[in-house]
Design a protein that fits this description.
- By secondary structure, this protein is mainly α.
- It has helices at 3-13, 19-30, 34-64, 66-78, 85-99, 103-120, 123-135, 138-153, 155-172, 175-184, 191-209, 217-230, 236-264.
- α9 packs antiparallel against α10 (175-184) and α10 (175-184) runs antiparallel to α11.
- It is elongated, with a radius of gyration of 27 Å.
Length: 265
């Protein structure tokens, strides 16, 4: 392989700063020139030390990025005049400043960001659908259905049904979407009923969100990590097959808690 091509490939896959030293090292090994190979190793070690110092600086900036993120979260919690978006935007801006001087890391970060963002694009039509349902009065009728079910079937049975429904919907949609529209159906109930049904819904979001690879943010990230870093042939059905036994155990436990709480009410 011509030297310029070797240098280009090593610069692309390893580091441009180390390409010449690495090429010299490998050439020395091929020709059994151990003394020059040791000198090449020393040069490579110096470059690695410089890279290590740069990495630590980038890590420190990354840690500092939590300060504006948490600060904006607190500001948002104190008053709604600050949109929640600014918290993540501020943290990302500071973190990006830590990797800006290094083009390779910038390209890697943007590539990973595009990959992660693509996993969430399917949520946009769902949020439009929720807005449409809200404006057409769907949730008012759903709230009436809950009241009728409480009067005819009882609080316990309806709470368990809501738990199971939240599990299923969070698995096939997304727990944030389900939390958005399901909470609208219980906002006009009595305080005691609101507490029981809110607990059933929250438990359902948590359980169902982990059941599939699209059910929650942590599932999306975990599934993408498995596909990229562990097993490229890993499928959504593999995820469901592995996680279902644990989901069943958690569902039984949460159902028992919801039933006991509803009976106490």
């Amino acid at each position: 392989v011509p030297r310029q091509e070797r240098l280009r490939l090593m610069g692309m896959f390893i580091s441009e700063d180390m390409a010449c030293a690495l090429d010299q090292y490998y050439q020395c090994l091929v020709h059994d020139n151990l003394d020059q190979a040791r000198r090449a190793v020393a040069e490579i070690s110096n470059v690695l030390g410089s890279v290590s110092r740069e990495r630590r600086r980038a890590q420190r900036v990354g840690v500092l990025s939590f300060a504006p993120f948490i600060g904006f979260l607190i500001w948002h919690a104190m008053g709604r005049e600050i949109p929640l978006f600014w918290a993540s935007f501020a943290g990302a801006t500071v973190a990006f400043a830590g990797i800006f001087p290094w083009p390779n890391i910038r390209r890697l970060a943007f590539r990973e960001a595009r990959s992660e963002s693509a996993e969430y694009l399917f949520l946009i039509p769902l949020f439009f659908s929720i807005t449409l349902l809200q404006k057409t009065g769907f949730f008012e009728s759903f709230s009436g259905f809950i009241r009728h079910g409480v009067e005819t079937a009882g609080v316990s049975l309806m709470a368990l049904a809501q738990l199971a429904g939240a599990v299923f919907l969070s698995a096939v949609l997304d727990n944030n979407v389900v939390a958005d529209f399901a909470s609208r159906a219980i906002r006009d109930l009595d305080v005691g009923l609101t507490q029981v049904f809110a607990m059933a819904q929250i438990a359902g979001y948590a359980v169902g969100g982990c059941w599939t690879h699209i059910g929650s943010a942590q599932s999306v990230v975990a599934y993408a990590f498995i596909r990229k870093e562990i097993d490229h042939s890993f499928t959504p059905f593999d995820w469901i097959r592995l996680i279902t036994p644990m989901i069943v155990e958690i569902f039984v436990l949460t159902a028992a808690i919801v039933f006991i709480e509803s009976r106490l009410l």
